[in-house]
Fold these 2 entries.
Entry 1:
Amino acid sequence: MKICSRCILPDTFPGIKFDEHGVCSHCADFKGIEALNEHKREYEKKFLDLVGQSREKGAYDCMIAYSGGKDSTYTLKVLKERYNLRILALTIDNGFISERAFKNMCSVSENLGVDHLIFRPRFDLMKKVFLKSSENDIYSKKTLERASTICTSCIGIVKFVTLKTAIEKSVPLIAYGWSPGQAPVQSSVMKVNPQLIRATQAATLGPLSKLVGDEVNAYFLTEDHFALADRFPHNVHPLAFLDYNEERIIKEIGQIGWEEPDDTDSNSTNCLLNAYANDVHIKRFGFHPYVWEIANMVRSGVMDREDGYKKIYGEQPSGLLTVAKKRLGI
Amino acid sequence: MRDEVRDFIFKNFLFDDSGDSLNDSDSFLEKGIIDSTGMLELVAFLEEKYGIRIEDDELVPENLDSVERLVQFISRKKVPS
Ligand SMILES: [Zn+2]
């Protein structure tokens, strides 16, 4: 397998091309770190303005989709300590949260003094979602570049449950802990538009409910939510414009009681299903579902190439597949 | 501009060699070509490429959800009224 000499994308990545120096087309298209930093400053300012407008509107200023992993934990810490927001942390338990991650969530919420809501969708239905997602290409081709279909289904449910909860509770801001490689800075501060949500929800829910049944509708918006158009919040993902350094983040959240789990794969610090989702994806498509995200971080100087390479091509702890398969009943 | 937009969609969402056909009036979301994250990437591309600033209330399917709609939207944005 050929791997880009600058980032870490492999020649098995869809549509990729290499020049004579072994540099990939994504690196060739990259506008450079200076341009990126300019965007970061612009969006941080946009975020600060928004925070100013969001305070003291209702019971909470902000909701965070809290997975218990390092990135959402750090995002929560920053929102609380640096911006002093009144936060409701919402965890969607997909049935595969590592034991350590659970302890982490509880210690962190307690130490930071934030309210924490845990929502656990029925596992028989989630299991069906995961099994169907491991066998079918449910969503657009583009999603396969960025994540496994299992992950995309799970995140889809997380996003819509989080959004409907924010609408129901009149919370003006939703924060996500997307890493700087996961989502572009240009979308890091954005008003959620009801019409666009209606269309994107249909694109997710349509194919999903066909495969697993209408019961999954419970996790998505209804007409009652769409009728409350003035309650649609802003989405923010602050890690896109804040300084990001994995080592420093882990050290900082260590001070509020977060410990690194030893039972997850190298690309997750909370989910026990992730290793299986990755394995299915690699076998079907020939590339790692995290390689796009990690390559973005390597390219933009947020992560050393060597560290990124290890995350994607390094050896994974054994036994993770067995654990996930057993719980899925495979 | 139409060619540039089509080119971007093909290169980024359909992959050049996939042989998928796309009519200018096809809805990206309905055809399963672009998802919500893809929409955001599309917005980033348009802002960069055409030097326009897309406001929150312009992020609607009417402006973004087909080649035809995109071309019309960009044309309107580029000529300040
Ligand atoms: Zn590259």
Note: Chain B has four helices and no strands.
Entry 2:
Amino acid sequence: MIPVCPTTALPPGEATRVEADEPIAVFNVDGEFYAIDDTCTHQDASLADGWLDGCAVECPLHASCFDLRTGKVSGPPAKTPVRTHRVVVQDGLVYVQPGSPADGAA
Amino acid sequence: MSRTIAVVGASLAGLSTARALREQSYDGRIVVIGDEVHAPYDRPPLSKEFLAGTASLDDIALGAPDDEDLGLQWRLGTTAVGLDHLSRSVLLEDGSEIRADGVVLATGARARRLPGGDGLAGVHVLRSLDDAIALRDDLAAGGRLVVIGAGFIGAEVASTARKLGLDVTVVETQPVPLAGPLGADMGAVCAELHADHGTRLLTGTGVAGLVGTGRVEAVDLSDGTRLPADVVVVGIGATPNIEWLAHSGVALGNGVLTDAHGATNIPGVVAVGDCAAAWSATAERHVRIEHWTNALEQPATAVTTLLGAGEPAPTPVPYFWSDQYGARIQFAGSRREGDVARVVEGSCADRSFLVVYERDGRPVAVLGMNQPRLFTRWRRQLRAAVPTAP
Ligand code: FES
């Protein structure tokens, strides 16, 4: 598991990027934490820089939308889903587990 | 008999139109006509990743797996040569015609060429996939590249060519590149990227002619300079593909004239993307926008108009981006002469900044270099600030 930050450092509506083999973006949606691959599957943009809209993030470059819960594309031009990663909150710290999909993700 | 909608143009605007038709519950026949033989592909990478050889044809394909379900009838490699507005038929170059209940004009634009530049090997424009393949092959030989025009395409080609190791000179007639879209101050800042990366930029000088027999050897400038060249790229803008509509009765100007929601003067005919000049309430004139985002978003509005299915969505805030020399430039909004540009984050010297353009103290546009996160916030804010009524 990779430590991300204290929960207090990632308030609702915010996102942060974690360096891993493939960088990961971690989001706080109203107190729920979600993690997906940071690099947009369309071209080269960091989704942690994107815009959070409910449970979706809009890519900062060409506005592809991804569902944070499933990684699925909810708006073009991206064609391929992003991978989701499991997030664990323990003792006030946020961790991600790269490679193991979030519960409920396809 | 079921209804037919003909979409003339098979690039981003045409494909987005087909998707929007299905999304808005149209279940009749859709025929998509495209003059290129290629299935829809994305143009922005043609001056960047595709030209550099790091993106393949597959990577830049626009079609998604789900598009199979759209049930489209493709007529690729077929040029539309006319439109009969009484029968709403699209006439094709092979003499056949497609009768339709609705027609979407999405024929795009083509690269402007240098008068007298045709017929010389080594002289390129960059608009289509075939253009990009030909240029890529020529750049692979290395040598000296002269880019005519320091707009976004020209700058991106220069940047890619530098990465490939070519010696690059960019020639621009205007005293400052990009002054039109960005204003002179910020245009000058963005143009500094050329020098940062070893590209020579010559401004305020026109091209007198191309030199060479069979193959280009040099570019003569209006100030008398002769620039030796192995490859020349002409990036001096684009012209809308509307000549085929000359006798159709469709009102034309600098593009197909439409209202704010894509309707032309002919009922059942709408226009989208680079070929369309839509009425802009803010600019108080018809504006033809060549941005990728416009070709992506505008079709949904035009389709609502065509199907007569309720209120069209508000016009989105114009947005474009450019990737050059490793820097990401993003712009959103509508800038006019006289707007005041203010740096609100970072600094131009660091090549990382956010600039807000203000008119009467209100933000009307925003420019970012290597500031994607902050830029997105400002772009959102502009979107929210735009009045919904046209
Ligand atoms: S890079 Fe994300 S939508 Fe294009």
Note: The mean pLDDT of chain A is 92.
